[in-house]
Structure formats: structure tokens, C-alpha cells
Amino acid sequence: MSARKTTVYSMVLVGVVSMAIGMVITSRLDLSSSSSAQTSTAPPMNSNPIVGSIDANTFRAIAKAQTPMVVNIRTESRRRTQELTDFFGGDDLLRRFFGTPEQRPQPEEEVTEGAGTGFLIDDEGFILTNNHVVEDATRIQVGFFEGEAGEFFEAEIIGRDQLSDSALIKLVELPNRDLSVAKFGDSDQMEPGDWVMAIGNPFNLAHTVTVGVISAIGRPFPVAEGRSQDVLQTDAAINPGNSGGPLLNIRGEVIGINTAIVSNRASNLGIGFAIPINVIRELLPQLREGKVTRGRIGIQITRVQQEAVEAFGLSDRRGAVVSSVEPGGPASAGGLQPGDVIVEFNGETVEDTSDLQNKVVKTPPDTTVPVTIVRDRERTTLEITIAELDLENEGQDRSARTENLDTGFGMTLTDLTGQLSRRLRAPSDISGAVVSALQDRGAAARGGIQRGDIILEINRTEITQATEATS
Fold first, then answer.
1. Given the DSSP bridges, would you call strands 152-161 and 139-144 parallel, antiparallel or unpaired?
2. Would you say residue 337 lies in a domain?
3. Quick check: pTM over 0.90?
4. What are the 10-residue block averages of pLDDT along the chain, 471 residues in total?
5. Annotated active-site residue in 165, 186, 235, 415
6. Is residue 362 part of a domain?
7. Is-catalytic flag, 207?
8. How many domains is the chain partitioned into structurally?
């Protein structure tokens, strides 16, 4: 019997260097895009084609010109230390050693420090950074890479958005000098192979410049449970502390905000991710108002598999399959049903699940939009009124709902309803759980289970609904 060595890689947010006072624990890093100075609307972007050659002075010139608009962000947050009864589970033996809660001092607050990066977008002191850099901060300080050495200025949060991992903060008082501000490029122009530069504060090493290329575009990146954001992938070295800093094109324009890296905890693997600046630019007016509103329709979706194209009556794999519908939600009220394939949303073709998610969240709440679906091989259009997305409540609802559950075996199940039974042409007298999603290399897929299979028994135990497969 031979042992197999496995290397574990993880996705790491890299924007904040966190520490208990006096001891470093961890850090995070991000890339960001730049913008020109404006206060009431989103800054303009330069969509002109990127042309010209690169010489020995290109990156030196970019670093010299753009470093002044990049800032070092320090944060403080407070958390209550955990009681021993919580840590040890309230064991009676440990109680005799450590006493009861009444006999012990009450939990104290621990001050945690963090560090990240940001960049100025106007001369009034507005700064873009990552949400994860400042979301728990009780104090924010900003330092400049030039000018007042070692001097930090107080800042406050203006608006945050979890789905784009973006935050807008503002200096409480301006330094006594002119401020350099970022310029926005067009992130939609970026293609694999394009040169980029990251400037930031990795490991508290301020004014660090790294260079690389765009490795890929449109990478789905998880930003919340069941939700993702398409990001830019780059091999420009980014490390903990770079979070919120700018990713620049060769004109020195911001085209992304660095937010995460892939790491095996031993080294930088050259795989970093940045939120495209065009995404952030669209949100800036709402960030300035202090709240970003998003749309939702109350469904869970999966990709159209190649083997299902003909069965659905489609011409290709474009679209998104509805795997479950929230009872009483907007989609349910509009007539959407499990098994429907959404092919158009508000008059625009739906390319895939990520495209549909982006279209829905960008639609203002209370807007009624046409949604074209394929049902039983026929196209029909429904009218659905968009609701407002509440990520906190959605997460609670998702964990409480039973109609679409992760089994832990690399497959997701939903209850076999009468309608699904008819769609799958299953016998009318059986009950069970339908496989609505599969992880490509999960245990279920390796065992031969396919999407659309009906689970009747697990370990000789009859399954009549999805919850029984996860208990």
C-alpha cells in the first residue's frame, strides 16, 4: 500500500495584514483600476485603443507617474476574546480548573490591526479599496507614498459592496498639498498577454511595483455563497497587503482592483485576481450614496450540459437551467419553474450562468423585465419583477431551505416534485431526490452519477426528499 502526497492549494484574499497588537497573523492583497477626478458621478474612462511599443523606460515612467496616487491603508478592529467555556465546550472537568463564568473575568476586547492598499480617485480625498480591507474596521488611517513620511490621516467609510469586494473611503482631513488622482482605463479592452503593473503595500513594504501580464479574463470568482464575479487573472506578483491597490495598463490607467491570489501557503504561484474597474465604475455613484442596491429573482441555476442541448430543444449551450425556484419569490410569482432554460433576460441573450447572475444583480429592484425561457422545447416569455438582494438574509435563507441541498459528496439535490418527475419521464409512483448539480471531479461524479439522476436509496436507506440525503 503506497501513500500519496497531496498538495493543497487555496484561494486567499490578500488585502489586509491582520495582527493582534504586536504580533503579525496574516495579510491580504488586491489590484485596482484608476479614475480621473470627479465628485458627483463615476470618473470617465479612456476607451481608446492601446497602441504603441514598450521600451526600457515604459514601466519606469508608469511607476514614477502613478505611485503618488496609491495609498497605504491601516485599520483597527475590535473583537471580544472567546470565553473558555465556549472554547472547551463547557466541559465540567475544565470548569473545576478554570471556574464558572461568574468566577472568571468577562471577555475582553482585542484590538486587531490590518493593512492594505487603496488609490485616490479625486482631489476631495475619495479613495477606492477592497471591501475586505475595511469592512470590520473601527478606525482607518491613510498614508501616502510620498510627502509626509510616516504621517497618517484619518479616513471614514462612505460605501461598501460585498459582491464586487469594493469600498469607497474618504479622508476626514486633507493633507496640505495637491493630491495625485488615478485615471480609469477600460477593463473590457484587456486581453490575455496584455502587460500590466501592480503597485501596493505587500507585507507593509510600501511603494512596491510588480509587472506581469493578463493571464485570463472572465474568470468566475466566488464573492458570496452561490454567487461569483468575473475577474481578471494576472501573473503580476501580488501578496498580502496589496489588496485594494491598482492594476494598471501600459498607459498607467487603472483597469482592476487586486482582490485575491491562489496560494499553497508556501509561495506565490503567479495566479492573482483583480475585479475589473468597469464593474467598480458602474457602482461608484451608489458607493458615494453609501449603499449599493442589487437585484434578485429567487432562483438557483446550473449550466447547460452538452448532452442536454438536444433534450431541451436548444441549438447550443447558451443559457442557464433553473434547478430550483424560491417559493413565493419573484421568479415563482412570474411563472418560472424548475427545468426551465433561461435564454434571454431583458432582451439580451444569456450566455451562461455567470452572465445571467450579472444581468440580474445589475437590474434595479422593482423593475419588471421580460425573461425568455425554453420549456418543453418551446420558447415563451415571462414578466418578472426584480426584488432587492439582501446577502445576509439570502445566506440565512439558503442554509435554511431544503429544496436544493449540498450533500457533501460533490452533488446538489432537489426534491423530486410532480413537475420534475414529468420532465424527467420518471414513474409517477416513485419519490426521491434529483441531482441538480455535480462537481466535475467530486465523489458522486467519479462514481458515475449524472445530473438528472433520481436518488432513491443511500446505503440501503430509502430517500424520499433531499433533506434525507444530507442528514
1. antiparallel
2. yes
3. no
4. 38 46 27 36 78 85 94 87 44 41 58 92 95 93 74 94 94 91 95 96 88 93 76 92 94 94 69 95 94 92 84 89 90 93 96 90 94 94 94 55 57 75 66 78 79 78 69 48
5. 165
6. yes
7. no
8. 3
